[in-house]
Design brief:
The complex is a heterodimer of chains A (about 500) and B (about 110). Chain A is mainly α and about 500 residues long. Chain A is built from 25 helices and two strands. Chain B is built from four helices and two strands. A two-stranded antiparallel ribbon of chain B has the order 1-2. In chain B, about 30% of the residues are buried. Classes of the chains: A mainly alpha (about 500), B mainly alpha (about 110). Chains A and B meet through helix 6, helix 10, helix 11, helix 12 and helix 14 of A and helix 2, strand 2, helix 3 and helix 4 of B.
């Protein structure tokens, strides 16, 4: 995207307009709010309605990488990259394993961070500390990835009129200002704008790509079958195992990201939450499926690109489309605005979740438990700013060694899945085995990544770690836990009582 | 969105009266849902097809990709259905509380 030449001043104007709108929404969201209350700041008081909740789920789940990274994947892998569609559906399906019950417990107990559930269920021991560390590590790396993508996106959109560093700092400042002033409410409302921008961007990208091949997708796939049959054929068993593994890994990992869990807490009602998720179940077909088609079309528009060159695929297609006329040019400006909006909307959610864990689970729990809520929130805000500053330094000066630990995200976060998905239902599950399972899972996943072993026979290291994690949790709890060690979290009897049907 | 319910008639048709009259449901308790989920997920991964197969092409698209696409659409549909129809825990109490609030402050 750094080679994108079609834009310039108009790109700068679009980005400036985006920044102004985001700041205005942030100011409006923060106006008159009681941001000194943690629940108000981090969860918008638990009052997000359907539109805000749906778009914040959407804009957070789909980052800029879902467009600029996934299209080149489709270009290189061919039809096996269709997996990007079911693995995004799997995130929503996995929510169904724990969100219904967690929502009820969270509303009853007034949870703010994901760690609140662990403390409620397993007590304030080393398990909650380990979980908080994994969350902070995963969130920081996720944020780092967004900051890198943000710079490339902005430099691409403006044809490097805005240099990489200046672009990142400008948008990071905008993000920090609206997040600081309005918290979750500002993040969710800017996500409405950003989610719409992303949808429009994906739509114009599809239109542009189809226009370039005269709408003949069948012709593209038939030609691809002749020139690159391996991209069209049934993939190897290893690739298929990887495909299935990605559905499991991303489904389990993305649904227990701290910002994903906080959106369960932030829903105004169960009705709002389930309707938002019901629509979200279809969004992969409107987003990653479209990007998949664009990547496949790219194989005929720009055949024979090297791996590095293929990373610029979206920029190349945008250049071609922009050259067709003024309307197309404007559409491609919208596309890149959508990409930048998608990155910012993912970054702000990760940043807010990061701040909340530092504020509530580190500072408010271990550093200064007597601190009033207002001070805790302030510390969380400052921690967010410091984290972004440190991450920017890492983004611009990547460490020569152990760089792999900065890409660990899903592999670590997915190790949190058992304490939610088993802990909510299995009363025998004990804190000790849960800790050692999580620790072993994270250590295995981390060690394999650092050793440069991405997968074993198509099964990613994170999933192998998770298997060990679950085994230790289950066997250990059977050995040391009692059947009634923990009170039941079954919400059905209480719900029956509440509506007088019991 | 949620507020729209306050304009509903006193005796809504059965499907619209849903949350309060429908039994309490939690998706995790429905084994058939998860069996169906597993079937559509596995059906969408071409593990069971011979590596390297391309033809027949249907509209220029290899048959196996069409199977995957159909399985993904079924996966989305099933997930959507489960959210709307197989999940009913807090809604009856929340709706009842909201109606009580509406009566107190019309």
């Amino acid at each position: 995207m750094n080679e994108l030449t079609f834009s310039g001043t108009s790109g700068v104007l679009v980005l400036a307009a985006y920044a102004v709108v985001m700041l205005a929404i942030g100011w409006w969201a923060g106006r008159g709010s009681t941001s000194s209350s943690a629940r108000s700041y981090y969860l918008s008081g638990g009052g997000l309605g359907f539109v805000a909740l749906f778009f914040t789920l959407y804009a957070t789940q789909y980052s800029g990488n879902s467009i600029v990274g996934y299209a080149p994947e489709a270009y290189r892998s061919g039809f096996s990259w269709w997996q990007s569609v079911p693995f995004m559906v799997a995130v929503i399906a996995t929510y169904l394993l724990f969100a219904p019950r967690l929502y009820v417990v969270a509303k009853r107990e007034g949870f703010i961070t994901p760690t609140d559930w662990l403390r409620h269920r397993f007590g304030s021991g080393k398990l909650t500390v380990l979980a908080a560390v994994l969350m902070l590590w995963g969130l920081a790396n996720y944020l780092l990835e967004q900051l890198v993508a943000m710079g490339q996106g902005i430099a691409g959109l403006t044809g490097a009129t805005i240099p990489y560093e200046i672009g990142v700092i400008a948008f990071v400042l905008v993000m920090l200002i609206y997040s600081w002033s309005g918290g979750m409410r500002a993040v969710a409302l800017t996500d409405v704008m950003q989610g719409i921008a992303l949808l429009v961007g994906v739509a114009v990208l599809l239109f542009g790509a189809l226009y370039l091949v005269g709408g003949d997708v069948a012709g593209v796939t038939t030609a691809l079958a002749d020139t690159d049959p391996e991209k069209v054929a049934v993939p190897s068993t290893t690739t298929s195992v990887e495909w299935l593994s990605m559905i499991v890994l991303i489904g389990l990992g993305a649904s227990v990201y701290p910002h994903a869990i906080q959106r369960i807490y932030a829903a105004r009602s169960e009705r709002t939450l389930k309707r938002s998720l019901a629509v979200m179940a279809w969004m992969p077909l409107l987003t990653t499926a479209v990007v998949f088609v664009v990547g496949i079309v790219g194989t005929q528009l720009f055949p024979g690109l090297s791996e590095d060159d293929s990373e610029q695929l979206i920029g190349m297609i945008a250049n071609e489309v922009a050259g067709l006329g003024v309307v197309f040019y404007l559409m491609m400006i919208l596309l890149f605005g959508g990409v930048v909006a998608a990155i910012v909307s993912t970054a702000d959610s990760a940043l807010l979740a990061f701040s909340s864990v530092v504020s509530r689970d580190v500072y408010g729990r271990y550093v200064n438990p007597a601190a009033p809520e207002k001070r805790q929130v302030l510390v969380g805000k400052i921690a967010g700013v410091v984290a972004v500053a440190v991450l920017l330094l890492i983004a611009w000066n990547p460490p020569g060694t152990l760089y792999e630990i900065f890409v660990l995200k899903f592999e670590l976060i997915v190790q949190l899945a058992p304490v939610f998905m088993l802990g909510l239902y299995w009363r025998r599950m004990a804190a000790g085995p849960a800790f050692w399972g999580m620790f072993a899972g994270a250590a295995i996943a981390g060690a394999l990544t650092v050793a440069g072993v991405d997968d074993l026979g198509g099964v990613p290291g994170g999933l192998l770690g998770l298997a060990v994690n679950v085994a230790i949790c289950v066997v250990g709890s059977l050995l040391v836990g009692g059947p009634d060690d923990h009170p039941s979290e079954d919400p059905v009897p209480a719900a029956r009582e509440a509506v007088g049907t019991g | 969105m949620d507020r729209g319910r306050s304009t509903e008639p006193d005796t809504p048709p059965p499907d619209r009266a849903a949350p309060r009259s429908r039994p309490l449901r939690e998706p995790v308790r429905n084994p058939w849902l998860w069996i169906a989920m597993a079937v559509v997920v596995v059906a969408g991964v071409p593990l069971y097809l011979p590596t390297g197969a391309i033809r027949p092409l249907v509209g220029g698209v290899p048959f196996w990709l069409l199977i995957s696409v159909a399985a993904t659409v079924a996966f989305s549909a099933l997930t959507c259905w489960a959210c709307l129809r197989d999940w009913n825990l807090a809604e009856p109490a929340e709706e009842a509380a909201r109606e009580r609030d509406a009566e107190v402050s019309p």
